[in-house]
Design brief:
The complex is a heterodimer. Chain A is α/β, with parallel strands linked by helices. In chain A, 35% of the residues lie in helices and 22% in strands. In chain A, the strands form two sheets. In chain A, strands 6-7-8-3-9-10-12-11 form an eight-stranded mixed beta sheet, sandwiched between helices. In chain A, a hairpin with a 2-residue loop joins strand 1 (4-15) and strand 2. In chain A, helix 3 crosses helix 4 (123-136). By secondary structure, chain B is mostly helical. Chain B has one domain (2-127). Chain B is 85% helix and 0% strand. Chain B contains six helices and no strands. Chain B has helices at 2-28, 31-38, 43-81, 86-95, 99-127, 133-136. Classes of the chains: A alpha/beta, B mainly alpha. Chain A binds chain B through residues 54, 56, 79, 82-88, 91-92, 94, 96, 99-105, 113-114, 117-118, 149, 151, 162, 165, and chain B through 30-32, 34-43, 45, 49-50, 53-54, 127-130. The structure holds adenosine-5'-diphosphate and magnesium ion.
Chain lengths: 327, 137
Amino acid sequence: MALLEVRDLRVTFETHHGTVRAVDGVDLALEPGETLGLVGESGSGKSMTNLALLGLIPAPGRVEGSVLFEGEELLGRSDQDLRRIRGNRLAMIFQDPMTSLNPLLTVGRQLTEVLELHKGLARREARARCVQALGDVGIPSPEERLDQYPHELSGGMRQRVMIAMGLLCEPALLLADEPTTALDVTIQAQILELMQEVQRRHGTAIVLVTHDLGVVAGMADRVAVMYAGRLVEKGPTGPLFGTPLHPYTRGLLESVPRLEGAAGHALDSIPGSPPDPAALPPGCAFAPRCPLAEDSCRAERPPLVDQGPERASACPVAAAREEGAQA
Amino acid sequence: MLLPGFCLGLVYAAYISRLTRTGMLEVLSQDHIRTAYAKGLAPRTVVMRHALKGGLLPVVSYLGPATAGILTGSLVIERLFFIPGLGLHFVNSASNRDYTLAMGVTILYTVLVYTLNTVVDLAYTLLDPRIDLAEEA
Ligand SMILES: Nc1ncnc2c1ncn2[C@@H]1O[C@H](COP(=O)(O)OP(=O)(O)O)[C@@H](O)[C@H]1O
Ligand SMILES: [Mg+2]
């Protein structure tokens, strides 16, 4: 049985400018211990997808669809039921470790409360477990760290604290929303390595949200590419990076800097910018920026269609060309 | 005694409740509140443990100026309601040209305002660990 099965997930906001479809019919599945990379430009709905799983979409957002987690439907459950799952079986860590920790409480207090809540531990036992948890994520002299405040730690240390916090109850699934975006490159690599190690040790499944394809290439088993609230392509990491099917994925891959690239070779970034989510074009949302766009693309939004083993893409034009080339 | 107290305090009470409201709203919209909910904490715990302290910071820093305001306000209030307090003494001493008394009361007021402001500043460092008075000096 899949650990997580998301079907036709929709998150909408009614605003003065119209209905914003932040997430617009997303399907995802995740097996235990697996890593799914969720990539896309900023504003494409990655964070909203994750928050919807936890039932934490801010008001006035509306969530529809189905989220099966460990065989249970999460959407429409009472807040009380969800609170037992949050931070326990399903944990989330956030992008900016500077602002995502409470500046007025000690690191120890912010960690122990999780164990007190979900495991019913007394403060003293919880503290002992937290010392161990901080040690596990490579934080030196964890005992002292517990009595420090977040501002006394470096960015990398704070993100380690976040990760330790997320893993305290050994969740089955960890939602990591851009866990390394706010960190510099060397620290980034350390944190990713740490996450992989933790995953091996605990068998935690991870949804890794990022706009950095380099991060995904090294970590994810499978990748889902998101654009304007929809998945435009998904598939196993290797094949998806080797032969991207959707022009948006190709664009993303071409804009990644490469070491072996010829000096002076300009990075191809995708022209234009993502569409206004309150005023999406009627057809494919990527059509205005797409080199392959045809009239049919602008008329109707192409669905995500299976293409080959475990792969799917929402670009019929690219698929037709591929077939034409093979014939 | 009820009415004068009311007249003196009402403006400050209103302002403090407004400060509390804006302070709490501000804190509740911060990122770390989302983290607290993501841990599975109940809304009541999130507000009491994670938001209240930060939300009250602006109130605490307002307490200094507020006490100064209340002390000066008492000059007028005591006169209006004929309460034989320090404020009334001060006003009378001024109109009777009793310089010694006027100076004495002025010094007393100065010391009071000074001390209360210092106490507020010290309380602030207790609430917010990011503020280190020794370092700023
Ligand atoms: N409160 C809100 N009201 C209206 N739109 C919102 C609100 N919150 C988020 N959105 C919209 O949701 C979209 C997706 O946001 P998000 O999931 O944070 O993107 P990502 O994480 O991929 O950068 C954004 O385009 C934004 O406009
Ligand atoms: Mg985001």
